[in-house]
């Protein structure tokens, strides 16, 4: 990948995680809806995952921490898979103002693998 395009996609990916992490604090109630009921301390997990997303996004922007950030994102996305499966099981439901249909819930799952692959690219690139 050419350097300018690489930088643009890196900044997009990092900004995505920073903003997603901030959203955990701005729209906390929404995350309770998609949190599997069997997980303990949902409030803690929502805030903790938000902090991890913000930190991961910031660390992606630093050359020396990019590989660690990519690994952290991969592990985080794998840890989020139960929430995405739970969404499929619960659909249809309202997520804030948005109706999550079974189709939308199913489409979110492959997106997680796309994001894992994207983080994997940065992990391998820094090897």
From TrEMBL:
<keyword id="KW-1133">Transmembrane helix</keyword>
<keyword id="KW-0472">Membrane</keyword>
<dbReference type="Pfam" id="PF07681">
    <property type="entry name" value="DoxX"/>
</dbReference>
<dbReference type="GO" id="GO:0016020">
    <property type="term" value="C:membrane"/>
</dbReference>
<keyword id="KW-0812">Transmembrane</keyword>
<feature type="transmembrane region" description="Helical">
    <location>
        <begin position="7"/>
        <end position="26"/>
    </location>
</feature>
<feature type="transmembrane region" description="Helical">
    <location>
        <begin position="68"/>
        <end position="87"/>
    </location>
</feature>
<dbReference type="InterPro" id="IPR032808">
    <property type="entry name" value="DoxX"/>
</dbReference>
<protein>
    <submittedName>
        <fullName>Uncharacterized membrane protein</fullName>
    </submittedName>
</protein>
<feature type="transmembrane region" description="Helical">
    <location>
        <begin position="99"/>
        <end position="123"/>
    </location>
</feature>
<feature type="transmembrane region" description="Helical">
    <location>
        <begin position="38"/>
        <end position="61"/>
    </location>
</feature>
């Amino acid at each position: 990948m050419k350097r300018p395009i690489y930088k643009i996609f890196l900044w997009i990916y990092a900004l995505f995680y920073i903003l997603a992490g901030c959203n955990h604090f701005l729209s906390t109630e929404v995350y309770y809806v998609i949190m599997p009921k069997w997980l303990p301390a949902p409030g803690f997990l929502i805030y903790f995952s938000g902090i991890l997303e913000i930190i991961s996004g910031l660390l992606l922007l630093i050359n020396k921490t990019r590989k660690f950030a990519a690994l952290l994102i991969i592990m985080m996305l794998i840890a989020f898979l139960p929430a995405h499966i739970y969404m499929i099981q619960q659909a249809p439901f309202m997520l804030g103002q948005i109706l999550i249909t079974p189709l939308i819930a199913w489409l979110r799952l492959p997106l997680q693998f796309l994001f894992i692959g994207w983080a994997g690219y940065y992990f391998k690139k820094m090897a």
